[in-house]
Amino acid sequence: MALSVGQIAPEFSLYDETKTLRSLSEFRGKNVVLAFYPGAFTGVCDKEVCAFQDAMSQLSALNSQVIGISVDMPFTGKVFSERYNLGFPLLSDFNREVIKKYDILLHDFAGIPGLDSCQRTVYLLDSEGVIRYVEVTANPGVEPNYAALMSAIEALK
């Protein structure tokens, strides 16, 4: 069961696509969209990161920062970020520690035994790190509800 609205988001540090260690706490003071996606270059994940990139100016105007998180290695994140010219960090949870903390581990991704990833999940954190919105898609092949997320972000104004 994923974390719930009203909880404080657990702190973490993960490497980004440039192999720089990034911590959740460095984004305090902004609303944070934690976008957990199962894996780069898997169709729906491509659409999701592009949707967030397309909304960057609107998100920035709402004092919001997107952070993508997957089990991919930082090197994969770098190529993924370059392919779509992403303006937000992609963090690598290759040990699946954060995914376990946030209770969104997905076993046997794509029907492959032993291939553990994450459920497609979006958390919206307010500027103090409190979870204000959660969406865990029932199927990793389904994009998040961007309109509902944007409404939740706008409500934080």
Note down, in words, how this protein is organized.
The protein is an alpha/beta fold and 157 residues long. The chain has one domain (13-154): Glutaredoxin. The chain contains 5 helices and 9 strands. A hairpin with a 5-residue loop joins strand 8 and strand 9. The chain is globular and about 45 Å long. The mean pLDDT is 96.
Please render the helix and strand layout as text:
Elements: E1 13-15, E2 21-23, E3 31-36, H1 44-54, H2 56-61, E4 64-70, H3 74-84, E5 90-92, H4 97-101, E6 105-106, E7 117-118, E8 121-125, E9 131-136, H5 146-154
Parallel strand pairs: 3-4, 4-5
Antiparallel strand pairs: 1-2, 3-8, 6-7, 8-9
Features:
157 residues, 27% helix, Glutaredoxin, 9 strands, two-stranded antiparallel sheet, 5 helices, alpha/beta
Count of alpha and pi helical runs: 5
**Uncertain segments of ≥5 residues (pLDDT<50)?**
none
Number of strands: 9
Gross morphology is: globular
Compose a concise summary of this entry.
The protein is an alpha/beta fold and 157 residues long. The protein has helices at residues 44-54, 56-61, 74-84, 97-101, 146-154; strands at 13-15, 21-23, 31-36, 64-70, 90-92, 105-106, 117-118, 121-125, 131-136. It is 27% helix and 24% strand.
